[in-house]
């Protein structure tokens, strides 16, 4: 095994950015303690708790650790009322311009400035010198006007309500109630629209003409059929055959099994057909990559259109008031003031998830229970780890625990000292265990970015975060997976890309895939990253990459109860001899079926090109199921069909 490559892979799961200060912390600590102490003392620790106690108590290392961690301070992007007000005025300028020229272009630019105004505005009363302390309310009000001009009633209504909640004076405010009426009308809630307009009418005075114009516009639009402008958040497809009561988020078609060689893994419990949805699972915890804080909701991971900010920091945003409230009531209140500290440390996304498991829990005891169960049930390769790997993870656990201390996760401290208490040692131990679990069990979360002109042409995969999935972690790896993996928000979806018989392994792919990577490189990558040698069929038979694969096909022997493999015959009209069942068999029917299957592949590909996605899915499901009845992989056209099916099922969710 390449220990150096394994070490590099392991280090990347703790610190993804070597420019961060954590790497200096680790190197300084390692130099202080020396290699002899690291191997003979720290390296001989038999438990995570012993490692944490050693880090904080052993005189060879504790002074350096405590001195550096003492300096942990809140660092985050703060609000700026002046910046918000300037951007609000720019938004209003483009909004006014949109009434005369280039409506859509000017409204789009106005929305950009309005979003900046909203995210940087301080909470009510924080800076009374600017906007009288109502910068946030005014920013929401301005953005609502822009959204109404874009016919986005739902989000405009949300912004109007937020403006009121953050202090906008709505008493006898005619303009506010007219805007409210327009928002309700756009979402077809006419009774509420009429009530809002009547309230406006009551206080209208010389603005009654505006109300009359509003009613005339409604009358002219009655015959028009409204369409929703923004995508509603979905939870993904339904599980085929319902949920397995013993496996959260998994279909009843699958089961959890265990063997000495493979450990615990997912296999088929019943017949599984191509296209069956076998997993739709919420994460235990999931986090957005910091580089996407400005583009996606940090809570549900949906793309941001009209961001709703945290009331305290400006470093990230949410897609709705609901997501903002849910986040700020749980994990974000502890993470908020340390967001730039985390980014500056260079810590990996897995460290964010480890921290999130604690910050999102209702209490410390619940978080400790979750971390203990995960450490007990999921793979950690504890016996294969080196001393410096444990040191690096222990230091990261100490850093995260110190941030929790400063965020008063454990409550107000009686002294300014950093020396951890008994419960803080337990949390630090739990974090160390999670940092081991996450290395081998987390999933990258990605979205498919579609082009404007075509669903598939020009689309690309964008990795936006990572999550830990309890059931999803039990799927073993093969270098050609038997499921399609995609995400709906944070939910992990797995859909079968081939039929499975009962007890057949249902496999995921951990990254190295035979279509793009040769056997030697795949094995090196898997040993270094996951510490195992892959023995899947693609590895056993050393399948060539897709580019080098010819169009030859291997058939199953058509005799009953025979599982022998037969190569494509030189002469289809002549029988071939099966070495296993010792019968002369004809492959004429198998070849005929293959020709029909390949024709279905072409029809499905044409449906994809015409963006008839559901038709393409049905054709791929039928043809792939038929292929596996008569033949087996690798078969180039079938591999391409499976890849195409993956694109299709991801495109409709």
UniProtKB/TrEMBL annotation:
Any one cellular-component term (Gene Ontology): nucleus
Lineage top rank: taxon: Eukaryota
Entry-linked InterPro entries: SET-MYND_domain_protein, SET_dom_sf, SMYD4_SET, TPR-like_helical_dom_sf, Znf_MYND
Keywords: Metal-binding, Methyltransferase, S-adenosyl-L-methionine, Transferase, Zinc, Zinc-finger
CDD domains per UniProt: SET_SMYD4 (cd10536)
One BP term from GO: methylation
Matches recorded under SUPFAM superfamilies: SET domain (SSF82199), TPR-like (SSF48452)
Every MYND-type domain range: 297-336
GO MF entries: histone deacetylase binding; methyltransferase activity; zinc ion binding
Name of the protein in question: MYND-type domain-containing protein
UniProt organism field: Glossina palpalis gambiensis
